[in-house]
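Hi P.,

Sorry for the delay on this. The queue was packed all week, but I finally got your sequence through. Input first:
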Amino acid sequence: MATYSYDEIYAIYAWRDNNKRLVVTQGEGINDVAEARTCVKSVRFQLKDERGVIAIPSTGASVQLAITRADNTEILIASDAISNTDKTNGIISFPITTALTAVSGKAHGEIRLITPNAIIKFYGINFVIYNGVSNQAAIQSEEFDDLIKSLQRVNTLIDEIRKIYTYSYTIPVSNWNNNTQILNLSNHYNVTNKTKIDIEGNDSVIEQLIADGCDGIYITNNNGVLTLHAINNSPSVNITVQLIIYEVENLS
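Then the structure:
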């Protein structure tokens, strides 16, 4: 997994694990999204799918960066406060905020493009929150990247996610109960409480979810028990998806 700087525009693809990782310091960032227009550190992404750039509709659409921090709390950062967003070319920009960097460790994220007809997700937007000296908040500056390189301690302070298995799975429509169903992979994979699973779907799956009024599907792991969740509505037919399975190994 590569570590990315903040100078480029990173292409990310819908319904894939994009495997992006950015490094920041605990406490770094702005305190208020209103400061985002002058924020020194921001991250830019270009939204794509297999057919090319995904243009962001000029009206009725929004973009969110949803981050689950190391303490399992989720924060949302909206892109509509950023002045240099290029909707025609699918380019979005997010500020680094103190809410994002408040807790050291690995923060897992996804970008959500929300339109009147669907929610399109881009997985694998991850942040390594480096623990500053004496747990004090680091001063945001252009020297930050040099500091990280000189200390060379990042790899001992993060959670490393290792992709180990991809499996094609058909989600049976008959098993949905109140938009949830248990996912049993016992014949295919030994699930532990460290197992993390992402879902990828092709164009036909996405079209089916839109037709059914389902805004997305995700998987939770409660001490080794996997549960599928459908947002708003569950699919009305069997759908076949790709399960991307990881083990989270704490190296700190």
